[in-house]
């Protein structure tokens, strides 16, 4: 695994135009965000959590998350990394194909996500309102335009 930011760039290098030596973001437990390529997207690891995500236009899309040791707070660090990257990059954050209802309820009730579809299998945390409106209007590889139904 190699330390990177969410776009796969070196973790200490902020987006173009910023000071290269700017301090790196630190999560709650000061855990690194590690990433490696996968044929399905990008694999990540933060402490005992690992998962898979994709970078899409105006969006980081978490496909799956697994925490090998429950209740150690490392899930908070995962969301620290994704949410701070969303704020930095002006992206929205989605979690898709949620099969665990308790996890869905946790995202909606405690982490500020809203349902992206009528079934509640996909959620989004909005950081970029125009991109969110565009997603609802035009759809993407996840959402069918103007339907609140996923593909």
Description of the structure:
By secondary structure, the protein is α+β, with helices and mostly antiparallel strands. The chain has one domain: Aminopeptidase, CATH 3.40.630. It is 24% helix and 28% strand. The chain is built from three helices and ten strands. The strands form two sheets. Strands 1-2-3-4-5-6-8-7 form an eight-stranded mixed sheet. It is globular, with a radius of gyration of 15 Å. It starts with a strand and ends with a strand.
Note the main attributes of this structure:
151 residues; alpha+beta; Aminopeptidase; 8-stranded mixed β-sheet; two-stranded antiparallel ribbon; 10 strands
Write the layout of secondary structure elements.
Elements: E1 2-3, E2 34-38, E3 41-46, E4 49-56, E5 59-67, H1 74-89, E6 92-95, H2 101-110, E7 114-115, E8 123-125, H3 129-138, E9 143-144, E10 149-150
Parallel strand pairs: 5-6
Antiparallel strand pairs: 1-2, 2-3, 3-4, 4-5, 6-8, 7-8, 9-10
Could you say which structural class the secondary elements and strand pairing correspond to?
A: alpha+beta
Radius of gyration: 15 Å
CATH architecture: 3-Layer(aba) Sandwich
User: What number is the mean pLDDT?
Assistant: 83
**Helix content, binned percent:** 10-25%
Name the CATH class. Alpha Beta
CATH topology: Aminopeptidase
Tell me the strand percentage band: 25-35%
Number of strands: 10
- How many structural domains are formed by the residues? 1
Short structural description:
24% of the residues lie in helices and 28% in strands. The protein has 151 residues and is α+β, with helices and mostly antiparallel strands.
């Amino acid at each position: 695994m190699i330390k990177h930011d969410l776009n796969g760039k070196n973790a200490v290098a902020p987006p173009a135009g910023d000071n290269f030596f700017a301090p790196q973001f630190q999560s709650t437990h000061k855990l690194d965000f590690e990433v490696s390529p996968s044929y399905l997207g990008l694999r990540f690891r933060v402490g005992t959590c690992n998962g898979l995500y994709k970078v899409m236009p105006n969006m980081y899309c978490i496909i799956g998350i697994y925490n090998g040791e429950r209740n150690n707070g490392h899930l908070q660090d995962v969301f620290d990394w994704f949410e701070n990257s969303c704020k930095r990059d002006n992206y929205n954050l989605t979690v898709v194909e949620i099969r665990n209802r308790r996890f869905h309820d946790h995202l909606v009730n405690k982490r500020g996500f809203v349902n992206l579809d009528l079934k509640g299998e996909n959620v989004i945390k909005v950081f970029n309102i125009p991109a969110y409106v565009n997603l609802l209007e035009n759809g993407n590889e996840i959402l069918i335009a103007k339907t609140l139904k996923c593909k």
